Amino acid sequence: MTDKTLVTIDNLDIDETIKRDIICDILIKYKLSDILDLLKDNSQLLFKYFDVFDITSKQNIFSSILHEMKFVENSVEHEIIKKLLNECDIKIVMGPYGSPLNQMLKHKSFVFDMFYEKYPNIFELKTKYNRGLYTEISTYVTNELLIHILNKVDTIDYNKLLSDTSMLRDKREIIVSFINNKSLSVIEKYNILIKEHEDLKEKYNILNKENNDLKESFDVLNKKVDNIKIIANN
Fold this sequence. Notes:
Mean pLDDT: 84
Largest sheet: none
Number of helices: 11
Order of helices and strands: HHHHHHHHHHH
Strand content: under 5%
Low-confidence stretches: none
Distance between the termini: 121 Å
Shape: elongated
Helix content: over 70%
């Protein structure tokens, strides 16, 4: 059964329930390679009937398309990844394709952001083979994505990240440079806070002096009023 046949059936002017049953019956028999071909050639059609696949099939599709394909942001393929992300376990390893957790590192920053939004603790997640982002970043990630991740996630254990002895020199240098800049940034923020504290302290001292001067003037005025009262009573 060709993709053109599916498109033809989808365009038939027949009862929608009957049409859906026919197409779903065809799709459920598709091999993974056929599904990938359909995704490349007619992703809109696949998305329309995507719910026909069971969770095991979706896990396979999830890992395989992250392994095989590149995605454009806000495309139909992007929407399919969102759907799979909500329904599948990103830690499960499927055949030769690996896990979505690690395969997504091969893609652009918007894909990582999708995963990170759903799993803020993503750096702590691991597959059954004890593989996670700390062990896989050096293998999959581009320098551009690495910089994005470092700026995006503030809970990374940098020592753990740098402990990967297989990490390439350029990636290691990016991480070390980021850590150094971050340390400088913290020092700069500390110095700014110190200066703000000193400025506030100075303003407080000025206000306190003005208050004391006003109190002193008020005391003098009270004494004058008391003297006038004494003279008036006499």
